[in-house]
From TrEMBL:
It comes from the Bacteria. Pfam families: FkbO_Hyg5-like_N. It comes from Dokdonella immobilis. InterPro entries: FkbO_Hyg5-like_N, RutC-like_sf. SUPFAM superfamilies: YjgF-like. The lineage of its organism: Bacteria, Pseudomonadati, Pseudomonadota, Gammaproteobacteria, Lysobacterales. Residues 167-294 form the Chorismatase FkbO/Hyg5-like N-terminal domain. Keywords: Lyase. This is Chorismate lyase / 3-hydroxybenzoate synthase. The keyword Aminoacyl-tRNA synthetase does not apply. Transmembrane segments: none annotated. GO terms for molecular function: lyase activity.
Amino acid sequence: MLGNRECQFERIDRIESEIAFTEQWRLRIDGIRLDAFDIEAADHESGELQFGGGLLRGCLYVGHGMACLFSLSMDLGAAVYHPRPPTLRRLPEPATLPIVRLIEPTTTPTTKPLPALRASYVEGAAQSLLAERDVLAVIDFGSARPACTDPRFLRIGLEPLGRPQLEVWRGHGPVSSGRHGALAWSADDDYLYFAIEVDESACGGLDAAAEHAYAEICRYLAEFRFGDGSDGHILRLWNYMDAINLGDGDDERYRHFCCGRARGITPAARNGYSAATAIGRRDGVRVLQVYGLAARLPGVAVENPRQVSAWAYPREYGPVAPTFARATRTPAGQLLVSGTAAVVGHRSQHVGDTPAQLEETLLNLDALLAAAGPQISARGLDATLLKIYLRQADEAAAVLADIDRRHPGAPGRMILLGDICRHDLSIEIDGIQV
């Protein structure tokens, strides 16, 4: 804690550039939690104040030692999430859990509404599905079915713990597809699917492979335009890599991935982080696989009031915090849920107890849906495709039975054998609300 309160507030001048763009809006302070507004030094060793906070589209949240709540009366039709500065390396432990509230824009959109992405889990042959004109992507898991070379097809080396299913995304019209260097893509008038696979050995390791993958994605998105001339806005990302927990401390492979991703994603993060998942494969293939979804209209980042935002994690979790939001609410009113586990605040809960971790994970999912707004919350998990990642195969039957009991109406579930990004977590769930 800095000793001189006046000195603390003088240092706010240093970060005015971080919030200068808020001058475009009329800000109305709803309320301030004064106990959390006491500014703490981010770096207790040097006494330097480091700030990390952001604007979500339609709401403001502030982290990294500050937590205050604002409402936005927007002069512009599209507020933007302001990401943590990409140069920020030392992360303080937040004094409180983040305060997050979505405030709907007061302006009426003048652009064509975005239709909902149609996603499903199906059994069948990939080739037959890819022959259909509205299919954006077919994601296969495991090695049971034959692969194909269509750019809309991607195989992930996570073995299913149950009947093999394909994840299928459909657009609302004819789909075009192709390859741009190492990046595969497909698009209709509303959505863009993209995927890239990067050989770690060709880049010199996972850190460099992650930077390369995200730099390629950013370069492609900088050039891509939909048919009406709209830019592509990232809504969701998935990351799969071999041996995610290998290595101790900062030598862990997941931490290497986070460092590389943060460097590579900087251009795309100018408007904020999207929802994301990162899971470890066990196939021994040192190839980083990244695929994602973009749209012609931007989404809204959603944070979980039960959890510290991932980008605000303290230094103990690595030299660079994970750069993702807990979920993205799409302009079509769908929630794209990041990989969610038994983390409260920033601590893992119920280590070694998978049923208890599942219970905590479902509580986190319920809180996240509530934070996304009443319409999304009302539909809940019973309107959400669930993808469950499990560390121990012999626990699959019990986990599925528990989820079926709690959410019998869910439109689809897929359970996969994989390693969670923290070694003390045994289960993670992500989802697409349909």
